[in-house]
Write a structure and sequence with these properties.
mainly alpha, 2 domains, 204 residues, Arc Repressor Mutant, subunit A
């Protein structure tokens, strides 16, 4: 039976390798005028065998997905989940919209290039679609809480609220406001809060 320090050392080594791979893949995605990613290039950058990448991530799309998940976690996804569950759903919505804008803004270029890769690789597109399905579920959860607590304006259903929140939190919305209107991350968050509050919440 291995001694505890050996098990710890192996775990630390595995984590160090994972970090190198994720960082190398991120670097490859961000390199050059357009993203051109290959498992061979990532393996070379990380100093590992290609077989290691396939054993750990299954495919190039799986590795790209892992990079996106890592970016989200480092950008504040856990904080976003905490805000979603604040006792008052209206406050939770406002704070979560701003935090979501900050999370996108924290790795905007990576997110943008990830969507370019999705246009080139159906497997990457499928991964983004799964992420969007989770986001739609989150918006339905938030909208349901708003409805249960009586925050929604008369005539606005929970499904109406979920659809608006889903549209506001889409990367395309953030991207359009940033590139088309020149807004920064905080301004985009403020705009999302203003629209959602005005369209969905009761006055007062």
């Amino acid at each position: 039976m291995p001694r505890p320090y050996r098990m710890k050392a192996r775990a630390e080594s595995a984590e160090a390798t994972r970090r190198r791979v994720i960082d190398a893949a991120r670097e490859a995605i961000l390199d050059g005028p357009v993203p051109q990613v290959s498992m061979g290039d990532i393996a070379r950058r990380a100093g590992v065998a290609r077989s290691t990448l396939y054993a750990s991530y299954g495919s190039q799309a799986g590795l790209i997905g892992a990079v996106m998940v890592d970016a989200g976690m480092r950008g504040g996804f856990e904080r976003l989940l905490e805000l979603f569950n604040l006792p008052d759903a209206a406050e939770a919505m406002r704070l979560a919209l701003r935090e979501g804008s900050r999370m996108i803004g924290s790795d905007y270029e990576l997110a943008k290039r990830g969507r370019i890769l999705a246009q080139l690789d159906p497997a990457v597109m499928a991964s983004l679609q799964i992420s969007d399905e989770y986001r739609s579920g989150g918006m339905r959860y938030q909208a349901g809480r708003l409805a249960e607590q009586g925050h929604l304006r008369p005539g606005i259903t929970a499904e109406d609220a979920a659809m608006l929140l889903y549209a506001l939190t889409d990367f395309g919305t953030y991207d359009a406001l940033r590139t088309g209107w020149g807004l920064d991350t905080e301004q985009i968050g403020d705009f999302m809060v203003a629209v959602a509050s005005r369209q969905l919440l009761r006055e007062g």
